[in-house]
Fold these 4 entries.
Entry 1:
Amino acid sequence: MNALRKPNVLIVDDQAANRTVLRAVLKGENADIYEAANGTEALSQMLAHRFAVVLLDVMMPGLDGFELATLIRAQEETRDTPIIFVSAIDRSDRIEFEGYERGAVDFVFKPVRAPILRQKVRQFLKQHERQADLERQYEKLVAKRREFELFRAKHFADEKMAAVSRMASGIAHEVNSPLAVIATNLSFLRSVVEDVDDEDAALGLQEAQDAVNTVARIVSRLRIFGGGRDDHFGAPDSEAYGQLLQEQVATKAEAHPEVTFVAHIDEEARLFRPAPGCIQLGLELIDIAVRAVRTVEGANDNVEGGEPSHVVEVHLTQDAQHLQLIVTDNGIGMTEEIRAHLFEPFFTTKQEWTSTGLGLTAVFGVVAEMRGTIAVESAPGQGTVVSVTLPATAASLEEASPPSSDPVDDDPLLRGTPKH
């Protein structure tokens, strides 16, 4: 029997002396003894605790034992509790029959014979123990089944994601080469058009270039999602993270005067140089936040003469174990249903050609590869908060080894030119 959760026994008798006698009889049993002097107290005790057995006096003022037994059987929480009637009434078939009709499982007549009563109570304590063991086993089985279902769902999702990842990597590889040819020819045609000063042709070529840039961004993110390393995510960050991130935020502010940018960079994080790719990781999140606030009605209005109402905040903090980047916007927010699909490839709520639907997918892949975590909080009309936490395993700028001397091309996502 579990000593930490001993079974309970309830003694119900209006005479304190009788309760004392019954308590003494049960002394030494591995059970907690409760007492009630009347039917009302007994009902309150039974609603507050679970009892292995109730020793119930038949003759009591107010609610007698038979009436109380009827009420106990009427309550869903107590109807299965065993009741032993303890009676000073002369033994008769009529009394015993009525007791059993009211729900008793046994009868004991006064004066009580201690060995017999102890044996009867002991049987119900053992029965209670077996029932408790069955319930614990059932809870374990339910927990195991839930764990198995979660494992099966995760395994299926991992297999599905792995298949999509392999497909994405293959598509990126196959598309990249012809895309480079198209980009090169477009560049040549633009130089030709500039010589003949044809505005219509120039406009058409610009639209074609925009489409190529969109496909280039898709290829870049497909490569990352497929497990490859694109240069813009893989190049070492040659400057202190906080300083460079603050400079990039200032650059974004110049490019988007309709949005207020606020950067909060902790001093400890200002000189920190993290794992490769963190700067571009931050820029990707900032770009997503900018697109979020610019979808709000009026976000592109002329802001001359007043401050823009659309805000993107960037917080960077660092301690001994972690580097945390938080990007907040006051855009339109999103529902739980949308948030549940955020990291799925090609999922987007934007209009066609305005989003690749792979930005957060790529971010998620990079964060996972760095053994970090990413969390998104959002609600309709309340903006969005994206929190990225990365392990602070790299040294500070002063202690770090010199950056790689290999040349690094310009960011293909920002530049829009595919790598080849």
Entry 2:
Amino acid sequence: MVVEEASQLSNTISSKKYERSNNVICLCANSRLSLEQKIENLVAFLKTNNDDCLGDICYKENVSSTLFKYRCSVVSESCSDLLKKLQKIELDNTDIEKSHKIALMFTGQGSQYVGIARELYEQLPIFRGYIKECSQAFYPYLNESLTDLIYSDKADKMILAQTNITQPVVFAIDYAFGKLFIDLGVKPDYMIGHSIGEWSAACLAGIVSLQDAAKIVATRGKLMHELKSSGGMCAVFTSGYKLEQLLENFGGSVWIAAYNGTHQVISGEVTSIEKFTELLFSKDIGYKILNVSQAFHTPLMNSILDEFREVLQEVTFNSPKIPIVSNVTGELMTKPFDVEYWIKHILSPVKFEQSLKYLSDNLVDTFIECGPDRVLAGMASGMQACNAKTILLSTNRKEKPFETCLETLGSLFRSEEHTSELQSPPL
């Protein structure tokens, strides 16, 4: 009998399974000089150990270092890439002088697309686990898997655009990114969501369980999808104040659905929207008709409220463990998030601009968008009322998702004194 050495193929497959397209390394020291020396030592190591596993190098450094006030971080795709970036790194503002206030922003409907953050879903088990957790919670109400709707070969953008599917999908992505940041040590001082995004904030803040949130969001989307109306929406590129004046003669037919700062959104009957756009055109005000079939955040939603209220009454709402700035009021929510609040949430305009101003007035200077794409971050960047020094993304449809997410984690490590130990995402 001949005995041969066991094949190494299975080990190769196993190691490939956990390779990532990018890794982040977070370096810190108790002085600038010590940080420079640490970088020099790592450069010397990489010059002679270029074939080592980049993930192992980053993980070891990220979990073994004591947190000091002088910090830097680098996102790279290989040891060679890390070496080049370390050799060119400029250590500006490496000293953590003060803590910052952080707000997580949760994106709303319209940000969905096929394959949202696919790279993270495929390469980061912890993120994939959050998505699957949401998929299981929604399955009894959708009879379909969210993971299939987003990531399978049969994923269809037209199906994702249906409100009964859109809202669960956006909720799940928002929730997954928010939970990822929190579990990795980010400590938000506030949360804010845009329309359906506020349900993700409510769930992560402990107001509702994931199972209850899934039931509510699925019902909300289904009722809105099945609503028979001739509603429409339109983005208007002017200030909220000026838009309110223009709408005075359209009372009862066109309403403001969202104050977004860089633009506002109106909602109402299609024929009334068309008449209003004629007024906008005559005054040389820019606008864009939105591809929706309902007049969200208006009294035209009234017919679904009784059935929605019945579902809400089955749920216990808790006090938030993380403060939430309300869509309805544009201020910190001090009253209970009860049934009637969530009814108003459907009918009232989204006061996103007012909410950001409130947060800025309360010294929030770091905003992180948790959602499928760069939507709220763009609005916040363009608002004069928002004094944010740092606006970060969870992902960006136009960029590599993993790289974008790691750049945000690295930025938070460099700037935040009150984040807990920031580790490489666990496998």
Entry 3:
Amino acid sequence: MGKDSNGKELGAGIYQRKDGRYEARIRIKGQKKPYSIYDTNLRKLKQKKKQFLMLTANRDLNLSFSLTVSQWFEIYLKTYARPKLKTQTLNNYVIGFERVEDYIGYMKIIDVKTVNIISVMQELEKEGYATTTIQQSLAVLKQVFRTAFENRIIPFDPCSGYQYAGPSKSVNEKPPDDLFERTFEQVLTPDVLEQFFKSIQSRRYYELFIVLLHGGLRIGELLSLQWKDINFRKKQLKVYKTVKKVRDIFDEEGNRLYDSALYHQVTTPKSEKSYRIVPLSDIAVKALKQWKAQQDADKKQYGRDWGRSNPLFEQYPDLVCTTGPGNPLNRSWLDRICNDFQTAINEPEILLAQKEGRSPNLVKVTPHMFRHTYVTTLIKAKVPESVVREYVGHSSDKIPELRADPDGTLLRTLHPPVHGHLPQ
């Protein structure tokens, strides 16, 4: 008969550990070591023990005492995830699990407790991962353990009820959990924009940065645009797909691949809110027409060879964003243009700051920051928050069902000069 720290009897096979947790040890036929269940609440522990014994008595368990978390993940990936998930999602699952594999992959899946899951999240914190990145890995673990529980591989789901909210913060420190609070931290100032567009005016893809600034598109959304998605007469474009770089996780026979090459894949957007119609300013329309002329010149230059090496050409022959030879545009080209600008601006500033004995005022520019700048411009023009969310394809529980404004009439009616606030 086990006892607690005060000597009170707890029941057969139940003990209180030095760390305050209660432990119930259950003998299982065919196993040398007893199976232990833990909880800080004695009543809940007894409920878990009762549930476990009932399942065992009903022979409703398919418990595995040797299967590791890594081994089960491979089974889950092939048997449960592969038939229903897109290649990009499978990629994300693999990446999310690889972050935590060193901390939990070696463990027997039946031995994993909630405290182990919490410990893994804390280890990722120490490695410096962002809260959203850690939450993505937790989401993968939740799917993996939930499936194991539903298939009676484990008696309890260690992820059930656990949520990771991020590193503990001081009472007065409030994390930016809203689209607009986050956006203001990543906005390009008018001065930086003026310098940027002046410096890249003669470079290829200049027009695409204009579209990013005046359309608020995500990079993948821009790269997946087809000319048929753009209505020049109505001055609008449709967003209903995105481009991602993925690698195959399985071959055609279902064998796991570990060293497959990356390739472009056009897929559906990240959420239903991402499906939308975006009104275009006159500046954006002009930029797109200029880019169309550039692409037509590329086709004339390369002739029949244009697009010959494009793996997406057969299914998407009218992609807007292409290289000179007609291949899909990689976002690394846009990153490179931004990096070149940063270097040109920051290097002289660093030298000047050293000479003057002060901290340098460094400039940061990324392709995604043009989307944030678009959002901020609309907010400053007093466009309703619900309308802004609709045009950038952002969902939030804080906002009720968004009003449909399929052709941009609402935006233009409420605030005709909105696009005039955007830098040209």
Entry 4:
Amino acid sequence: MKNCIIFLIIAFACLANRSISQVRQLHIGDTLPHVVLSNVLNYAGGKIDLADIRGKILILDFWSTWCAPCIKSFPKSDSLQRKYADHLFILPVTGQDRRMISAFWSKNEYTQSLSLPTVVEDTLLSAYFPHVGVPFVVWIDTDGTVMGFTDSQYVDERNVTKAINGKAIDWPYVGNNESFFDFSKPMLPQQYQHDSVLTTKVQYRSITPHLDGVQTRTVYDTLRGENAKRVLLVNYTIMGLYRQAIRGILGKAIGPDNRIVVKVRDPGRLIYDKTKHYKASWRRKNTFCYESIWDKHTDNRRMMEALLADINTYFNLNGRVENQPTECLVLTRIKDVPFKEKPLGKSRSSLPTYRTSTDLVDALNRRSSIPAIDESGLTENVNIPLENEGDFWQEMGLLNKRLEPFNLRMIKTIRNIDRLIITDH
């Protein structure tokens, strides 16, 4: 009897594996076959027959515990699900372990009070809808037809109501065209499907529009047996192109965003505004590909100076580095004495810790419009515990109260620093 049971279990496992291997990837316009999901958390009975969802818009939201944007989007999805329950079914999906997800779901601040269910230990839906990363969202209409693929930002009331009412949605491109291109060869003839031969004697510089289905890519290499050098930047923002050029010219990065001054008529093509655009749509319009091919003896700095000139010419801008006296936040020591690490009380031992003074200044630069500089001279770990959110990040007096026990303080003063200035040409 035991042998019979074991045989049946093995046979069932083999059948399950075979069925997954035979699943055909679904594309826009395809119909989702009959699917029963038997591993569902936060749902009565723990099983969902997707045939029962027909008549509603089905949104499959693939996620993982390490994906912060995925998790932060769940409360918004939960609110939409409650509001449009008669017309909508939002179903998060993860391939992660049931026990781990159950513990995570009940304790995480974004998920612990949700009414949304989630599929766990998924293999079937991922086989129907293979994807590279998360968040990855599949939209399926009331008849079970695949409508589109997006990220979680698109799951908002505007698009949900459009889907419910059968209105057109401006879907982003979420295909994968990586295999279409050979990035070891010049890109220009591939982009425009040219058969013309590019020899090492043909040198060019080009800026072309966004490539759908291709990730951002940075290539500095040699071509054709080291006969030519190349710079290839794929799907870069204008700001990203400037950063690459300045790094090559100065030999160092320009620094955080608060060291960049943008004074142009149309800042929207340089700086993404999440209140106005979906990021995928904005990137499709405002990212570009740059390629330049040079003689192998060309100096790298000259190539980067050409990149800077090409950006300015193509986009009719004037980007340049200027060393300017600038109001800065400067981290200093209160007293010139050796640093001594302070023991943490129990109430603060669980807080995020900034191990070095550089970590602390980097965190401040991410939150402040005023450039922050480290002049503490500390090389040892400081291990300062600070919450990720709090008024002290914007209020210097409050921040200094947190820093004082560590013999550190922030002062506001003038320093000459390099800044990237971008104006209209």
